[in-house]
């Protein structure tokens, strides 16, 4: 989502997501732009942090890592998201012991595909491999 924020006589297009807010956190723009739209930032819920420390946002972890002397931004599925997905799969597999293979595939497939599609645009190869191994171990 993006919006226009008027600063003096010029209008600036400012994307309103966690990564961009994190990049301009020291600016008064973060505090003033929601007020222009009739919104307020909750002091209890709002945390301004360094990107090198990272933060979780919408089931993904956003963090800058040092590699070859440069900072690289990596977005990965959060540990909480991975854990809750694995717990959900475990619960389904425990309740579905009496189902046939076709019924179990029909039950699991939408959940696996949905979670994978949500996280496919970020760095998630190792996590997908881990989830694949987790499902394999629980099925056999």
Describe it.
By secondary structure, this protein is of the alpha+beta class. It contains five helices and five strands. The protein has a three-stranded antiparallel beta sheet with strand order 3-4-5. A hairpin with a 2-residue loop joins strand 3 (55-57) and strand 4 (60-67). Helix 3 (79-95) runs antiparallel to helix 4 and helix 3 runs parallel beside helix 5. The longest helix has 19 residues, at 101-119. The protein is elongated and about 60 Å long. The model is unreliable at 1-16 (pLDDT under 50).
Concise summary:
The chain has five helices and five strands; from the N terminus they run ββααβββααα.
User: Which parts are unreliable, with pLDDT below 50 for 5 consecutive residues or more?
Assistant: 1-16
- Quaternary structure: single chain
Amino- and carboxy-terminal Cα gap: 44 Å
Q: What portion of residues belong to β-strands? A: 15-25%
The residue fraction in helices comes out at: 40-55%
Derived structural class? alpha+beta
Helix count from the secondary structure assignment: 5
The major β-sheet equals:
3 strands, antiparallel
Spatial arrangement of strands, main beta sheet: 3-4-5
Query: SSE order, as H and E?
Result: EEHHEEEHHH
- What global shape is seen? elongated
Tell me the radius of gyration: 20 Å
| Number of DSSP E strands | 5
Report the average pLDDT across residues. 80
List keywords for this structure.
single chain; 140 residues; alpha+beta; 3-stranded antiparallel β-sheet; two-stranded antiparallel ribbon; 5 helices; 5 strands; 47% helix; disordered N terminus
């Amino acid at each position: 989502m993006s919006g226009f924020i008027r600063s003096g006589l010029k209008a600036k297009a400012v994307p309103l997501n966690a990564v961009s807010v994190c990049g301009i956190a020291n600016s008064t723009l973060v505090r003033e732009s929601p007020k222009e739209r009739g919104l307020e930032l909750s002091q209890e819920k709002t945390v301004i942090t360094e990107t090198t420390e990272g933060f979780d946002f919408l089931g993904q972890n956003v963090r800058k890592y040092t590699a070859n002397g440069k900072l690289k931004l990596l977005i990965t599925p959060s540990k909480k998201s991975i854990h809750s997905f694995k717990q959900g799969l475990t619960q389904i597999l425990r309740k579905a012991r009496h189902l046939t293979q076709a019924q179990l595939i029909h039950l699991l497939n939408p959940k696996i595909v949905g979670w994978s599609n949500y996280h496919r645009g970020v760095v998630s190869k190792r996590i997908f491999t881990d989830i694949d191994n987790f499902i394999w171990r629980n099925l056999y």
